[in-house]
User: What shape does this take?
Amino acid sequence: MFKRDLDELFRLFNRLIKDKSIEDVPGLNQGMMKQFEFFFSNYENMKDQLSSQLQGQFGEPVKEMVRALIQQLKQEVGDDGFPEEIKDEEEAVIEDEIKKIEGKTEREKIDELLKSPGLTEDQVNELLDRRSNL
Assistant: This one.
């Protein structure tokens, strides 16, 4: 989930800087713009490592900040992004699957689910996020 939120944040921010001129974005100057462009060009190569590092070092406060930034950017660019219903549905499916497994710790349940074939990338990421938060 956190990795997906970071992807959404970067997608929205990238759209913002492509759709608007620097003058239209308060607090952004040419130097910052060049740094962001460099970062975005390398984001795909380092996104897995980055999400793990941010989550590991800062935990919940960073997750909340990322969610708040996503909402702010959605308003700014007029984008609904990833449909919330899909996120909620995937999380509910995972929650149901975890509840079905009895007699094991939360970590053991997650490990068992991670071995299941047919999981989507988002489901795997959600399970890994949950496991890392234990």
In short: Residues 84-132 form one domain. The chain has a mean pLDDT of 75. The chain has two domains: 2-77, 84-132. Helices lie at 2-19, 30-58, 60-77, 84-100, 106-114, 121-132.
